[in-house]
Structures are given as structure tokens and as C-alpha cells.
Amino acid sequence: MDNDIEIYTLSTCPFCIKAKELLRDNYLDYTEHEISHDETKMRKKLGEMFHLSGNVTVPQIVINEKHIGGYSDLKELIKSGKIKEYLNS
After folding, report:
1. Of 19, 35, 52, 81, which cross-links 47 as Cys (Cβ 3.0–4.6 Å)?
2. 36, 10 in Cβ contact below 8 A?
3. Which phi and psi angles does 50 have, rounded to 5°?
4. 59: cis peptide before it, omega within 30°?
5. Side-chain half-sphere of 78: how many Cα atoms within 13 Å?
6. DSSP per-residue codes, 37-88
7. Cα(74)–Cα(39) distance, rounded to whole angstroms?
8. Where are the domains of the chain?
9. Fold of 5-85
10. What tens digit of pLDDT does each residue of 28-86 get?
11. pTM over 0.85
């Protein structure tokens, strides 16, 4: 069964690049939403979508409609094996 993984990024963001590499290294396909075309507006929209306050950072990662956070959150989920709880079997 396919997983719906979305990642909101900026092309120059090192953590975005690392997150995409981590997904690829774990054979997880994703849809990328690059937000530089209207970064200020998109950061605000991401904050609203994910109920985040303050300066919203990228990447923001969603797996099967569950917001998991950013790169370090993804890395920890993979390292601990808890990512399986977010993936379709």
C-alpha cells in the first residue's frame, strides 16, 4: 500500500535536503512542496495548518495526513523504528 508523504521545503535549506535524502535512503517516496515562490505567506499557512506558533521552520513533513515535524523528528522516527506507526503496511 502506498504512503502519502508530503514535505514542505526551501531549495536552499540544508535540513530540507537532508530530510529528502533520508526519505530516499529509506525507500520512501514523497511529494515536495517548495515554498520559495511566496515564502512569508507559505510559512504563515504552514503555521496555521499544523498549529505552530512563532517562526515556522522547514522542512515540515506529513505522513499519511499526520504531521510529524521537521528533519530531526523524521530522523528520530526512523532511528527508533517508530516510523512504522505512521506508514501503511
Report:
1. 52
2. yes
3. -110, 10
4. yes
5. 17
6. GGHHHHHHHHHHHHT--SS--S-EEEETTEEEESHHHHHHHHHHTGGGGTS-
7. 22
8. 5-85
9. Glutaredoxin (3.40.30)
10. 999 999 999 999 999 999 999 999 998 899 999 999 999 999 999 999 999 999 999 99
11. yes
Cα 57 to chain centroid, rounded: 10
Grid cell, residue 60, equals 515540515
The b-or-e profile of 15-29 (16+ CB within 10 A means b, else e) is bbeebbebbeeeebe
Distance CA 68, CA 28 (A): 15
Query: Would you say how long the chain is, in residues?
Result: 89
pLDDT digits (tens, 9 = 90+) for 47-62: 999 999 988 999 999 9
> How far is it, in rounded angstroms, from Cα 77 to Cα 67?
12
Q: Which grid cell is 4?
A: 502519502
